[in-house]
Amino acid sequence: MVDLIPPEVRSRLRGLRLSSRRAAGQSGIGAHASRSRGSGLEFAQYRAYEPGDELRQIDWKLYARSDRFFVREAERESPLALWIVIDASASMAQSDAARPGWSRLDAAKALAACLAELALREGDRFGWIVLRDDGVRLALPGNGLRQRDRLLVELSPLTASGGFPAPDKLAPLWERIGARDLVVVLSDLFDDTCVALVERLAAARREVLAVQLLTTEERDFPFAGGHRFVDPETGVELLGDGPAMRADFVARFAAARAALAARLAAGGVAFATHFLDEAVDAPLRALFGAREASAR
pLDDT tens, 130-170? Predict the structure, then answer.
């Protein structure tokens, strides 16, 4: 199974934790009431010992057999359920010429794996939803290593194609996502149906965070000479001179991003942008790191 999380990113994830503003408001302490681990609860799994773990949690019999320290984790259900929503429409297949093997969807897969690791580490339940016009694929929130591995298995063959689902195909989201669940949407947010979905989820008392995935070419517009631009979902083509178009495109694209950020902020949606040449955990640090700082 391919590890979607680079080692340096995995290391930085240790400094983050999922947080829900609504859960924090209900409990009054911390970011959210995650699973409790310790004695007297149902055994869940072993994991490697980490500095700060209580010595009483070490399985000494397993240490005698393996000469390695392992901690027994037990758990009870947390009020936080995380939903990872992945846009798999055709525009998500776009990559940069400088890194043709790394698309928006690849970045979304890596971000989904990072979110699963954060939930797994804290014992929170997590599920996922893949959106494409040929249907909605949904996995109910669960916990543990099997849930993480199931996510990785489903992500591996996932490709981007077609358009974004029509509103009438999104009914499973309203039937499954709870009123106080945490939803993280990974998309380029180019389709207004997707943006409207984000707004509607937030208006229905779901806590929604959105990560907009963009190519570096959209940020820098580095095209020289004549170029053919193709919409991956509609096939519409535009021929133009790169240098002549650059200033106007950069200005209009920046204005569109600012308008989107204002629209989401008005709906109470936390928002971050991720460009494909940035560290994959950057938007998570922007979203959850800010919450950690404000909670201190």
Answer: 999 888 999 999 988 999 999 999 999 999 999 999 999 99
Please, what's the b/e burial string for 135-145 (b: 16 or more CB within 10 A of its CB; e: otherwise)? ebebbebebee
DSSP string, the chain: ----S-HHHHHHHTT-----HHHHHHHSSSS------STTSEEEEEEE--TT--GGGB-HHHHHHHSS-EEEEEE---S-EEEEEEE-SGGGG-EETTEEEEEHHHHHHHHHHHHHHHHHHHT-EEEEEEEETTEEEEEEEE-SHHHHHHHHHHHTT----S-PPPGGG-HHHHHHS-TT-EEEEEE---SHHHHHHHHHHHHTT-EEEEEEEE-HHHHH----SEEEEE-TTT--EEEEEHHHHHHHHHHHHHHHHHHHHHHHHHTT-EEEEEETTS-TTHHHIIIIIHHHHHH-
pLDDT surpassing 80 at residue 120: yes
Report whether pLDDT(54) > 90: no
